[in-house]
Design brief:
This protein has 11 helices and 7 strands. Strand 1, helix 4 and strand 2 form a beta-alpha-beta unit. Strands 3-2-1-4-5-7-6 form a 7-stranded mixed β-sheet, with helices on both faces. The chain is globular, with a radius of gyration of 18 Å. It has 280 residues and is of the alpha/beta class. Helix 6 packs across helix 9.
Length: 280
């Protein structure tokens, strides 16, 4: 299935993640980054282990991430943290354990079913300082200059207009604030069969862009001190690749310099703002 427009891509992601919201972590771990309909993959290829982090809530962990951004985000007590693509609340609840009672966590997600699931989890935990809002990361339902810290886990690569997403991230962030985002990026071009697969798109791979292009967008928007905090190569097994590539294409792909990586990227919004997203 070839997706032609940004709106079609968004609808695909919304549809897939609505299905995921109805599944538990075990079911999601049997699919590509949680995208139902993909062939079986070891979740360790993408997701990192949250279970030892303070604030971890098993019911909120759908196994959809590709890093641990909250671990690297330098969150402090009393901070306001915004989680982009908050899902069932996994990173939001970990962040809440750090900011404490005087802090605040706001999760934003595109999928109504995810918002509902996150709100149910927050209600069970009786958290009064964690809220979840339905919205598009390209046009966030937040005022400007509200976040001390922004986190996101394997979500921004699914957004069609990544520059607009980072522009919005810049806008909602206080001067001197920062983000830590885990995402999937590429080095070299993916084979055409992977790029055009709708299932792989909502499974976090085909929506990814080149690593250098990703970092360049962050710089262009106006962020500073851009740092790759963690990088991990994702080695897709033949069991997945065979559904998209011929035997010859798999061999060529695996022997090339092309790579799929999980990266966790940090950046600051400068105290004196002069980027294109300033004063918005």
């Amino acid at each position: 299935m070839k997706m032609e427009t940004s709106e079609q891509l968004k609808e695909l992601v919304k549809e897939k993640y609505a299905q995921i919201a109805d599944q538990d972590k075990g079911m999601n771990e049997l699919s590509c980054c949680g995208a139902t309909g993909c062939c079986t993959v070891d979740s360790a290829l993408m997701a990192d282990d949250y279970t030892k982090l303070e604030g971890y809530v098993p019911d909120a962990d759908l196994g959809l991430g590709c890093g641990l951004p909250t671990e690297f985000a330098q969150i402090r007590k009393g901070d306001t943290v915004v989680d982009l693509g908050s899902g069932a609340g996994n990173d939001a609840f970990v962040a809440r354990s750090i900011v404490g009672e005087k802090g605040k966590v706001i999760g934003i997600d595109f999928t109504n079913k995810m918002i509902t699931k996150a709100r149910v989890n927050a209600e069970k935990l009786k958290f009064s300082n964690v809220e979840f809002r339905q919205g598009d990361i390209e046009n966030m339902p937040l005022a400007s200059n509200v976040a001390d810290v922004v986190v996101s886990n394997c979500v921004l690569n699914l957004v069609p207009d990544k520059e607009q997403a980072f522009t919005e991230t810049f806008r909602i962030m206080k001067k001197g604030g920062h983000f830590s985002v885990s995402d999937i990026v590429l080095v070299g071009d993916l084979p055409e069969g992977l790029q055009k697969s709708a299932e792989m798109y909502s499974g976090c791979v085909s929506g990814a862009i080149q690593k250098e292009a990703y970092l360049s967008i962050i710089k262009k928007v106006g962020f500073e001190n851009i740092t790759v905090q963690k990088e991990k190569r994702i080695n897709l097994p033949n069991a997945i690749l065979k559904d998209y590539l011929s035997v010859e294409e798999i061999t060529a792909f695996k022997t090339s310099n092309t790579g799929i990586f999980s990266v966790t990227v940090y950046a600051d919004k400068p105290e004196s703002c002069c980027g294109p997203a300033c004063c918005k």
